[in-house]
Amino acid sequence: MQENTINKIVATINTAIQNQDIYGASYSLIGKNVNLRTYVGFQGNNSNHIPLSSGMLYDLASVTKVIGTTTRIFQLIAAHKLSLNSEVGDYILNVPYSKITIKNLLLHNSGLQPDFDNVHTMNKQELIQKIKNAPLIYTPESQTLYSDLNFILLGWIIEKIDHVSLNSDLEKNVFQPLDMISTFYSPTHIALSQFVPTEYQKDRGGIIQGKVHDYKAYLLDGISGHAGLFSTLDDLTQFANVFLNGGKYKDVQVFPSLMYTLLKNPLYRQNDRTLGWKLWEYHKNMFWHSGFTGTSIALDLDNNICLTNRIYPTRSNSAWIKERRKTLSIFFNEKEAVRK
């Protein structure tokens, strides 16, 4: 990564903070000629005017989908416990979409709706039944429509195969092997001041801090395949380093070789998606994903991780979305080439 590129990324993030689009940012730039880890700004304002520092925890939101769920699915495929053509009905009974496949879920072309409008009126069991009874709103594989339901189902399928809870499963098979000691669901043993706050929601008692922001994950006890993980910049930098260096860490092939083969296969690229990950450029191996709370991870020959919050104190502050894409376009050295 050229020094000019690094300077542009740093300047873009600093400008976003100066303009109060965000209160602060924790970000990492790693590659063949750079190893930059930066904490700038604060958790928030007023009572949250605490400087960002190493070890502070971010609600990853949908970055959960790639850090945890997608990684474990690739491991299970490599271990021949699952295949891309395995059907949902093989693991979850009595659903109207039993024939959609693991591939459909990963590519977000399953035919399931993106979300539910009235999730804040549901309890846990009502949400589970709503997911299990969800109709297909289009023919599978006919279009791409990003849906949390796809990854909620993938989380349930992982639990069915491994016969343990998703949090225990990911800790054992992904986070512990990578020495990601600060990545977990539903953290209750950490001081509140270590969490970067997300959004003010009156019905949840004010500013959400130390609890999962996503309401579906909240109803599911904070543990889901689509959202719920908390992590630090150090842990995600570790994840990215191993990912970019062939997937082997301490003599353990944490990211199976098959994962790289499948991610690079044009058969599994549709619009702006590949298996689990988003594509920045269709014909290049530029993988990324973002989370509603403002988090993002982008991987190329070099690597950039940017963790911050765009919904503190309210989701009406959308300025960071534009600045985040600008930062990613600088990192990838080109404008986004697939549909936005």
From TrEMBL:
This is Serine hydrolase. Keywords: Hydrolase. It comes from Lactobacillus johnsonii. Residues 13-307 form the Beta-lactamase-related domain. GO terms for molecular function: hydrolase activity. It holds the Pfam family Beta-lactamase.
